[in-house]
Amino acid sequence: MNDSTRFFTIGLIAAWYSSNIGVLLLNKYLLSNYGFKYPIFLTMCHMTACSLFSYVAIAWLKLVPMQTIRSRVQFFKISALSLIFCVSVVFGNVSLRYLPVSFNQAVGATTPFFTAVFAYLMTFKKEAWVTYLTLVPVVTGVVIASGGEPSFHLFGFIICIAATAARALKTVLQGILLSSEGEKLNSMNLLLYMAPMAVVFLLPATLIMEENVVGITVALARDDVKIIWYLLFNSALAYFVNLTNFLVTKHTSALTLQVLGNAKGAVAVVVSILIFRNPVSVTGMMGYTLTVFGVVLYSEAKKRSK
């Protein structure tokens, strides 16, 4: 790898880290500290931006070749994935109203556990016993962190667990539903079709469950126009997370992305504590550390089993 390629890759990784942690912290700020208590509407803004930017990136800028939906069956499969994706993102945003980012990330690190469970239940896929063993510290760490979390909120914790499970279910279903050669879509094309479907699912949900949210947002903007800029920047950043995710995978590997993702969780915990000053106990930090250690072991066990 020459110097220019190395710097480009490092720049991509830095952009991926910044956008991932940035959108997480901004979501927390809007939904908890700023008081914008409309997670479904916020998610709909994200998906609207992903729809627009995905079309520009693929149809106009030709970043990747456009792939088409080949059948009605494939359309329904993508719709199902989109619905589960909506649930995971909305629940994740809801949990940020009640939990600090640090604890949210610790719970989110249990994704491999739920992925292994769903893979076994739906495809009867078994991993090596060592792989299952590495999931013990992942779950144990979250249990310890929960007991030592000063800002623990039961409803927020349950919703966060549901968001993590939905994220894992989407990953497993994606592998099942789009596994045939004729149905494979790269992540950017999949987002191109999933994002507008997500908007269709989220629009009635926000109108029913977050009544008059548009009017309230306009009223907020009259008092503080920054809310509009926050929403626009946050939505653009949500697309940038997906774009940089794709580019980092393309220029490195899926395994590298997984390893970087493990470290990202730890970085997000530290940054969120520094910014939001949420109290963290020694027991909580021990739990976070054990969970991250377990995820690293899980990644290594998966790599060796292939």
UniProtKB/TrEMBL annotation:
Segments crossing the lipid bilayer: 7-26, 38-63, 75-96, 102-122, 129-146, 152-169, 190-207, 227-248, 255-276, 282-299
Extract the Pfam families matched here.
Answer: TPT
Q: Which residues form the Sugar phosphate transporter domain?
A: 12-299
Provide the protein's localization. Membrane
Taken from the UniProt entry, a GO cellular component term is: membrane
Query: Superkingdom of this entry's organism?
Result: Eukaryota
**Could you identify this protein by its name?**
Sugar phosphate transporter domain-containing protein
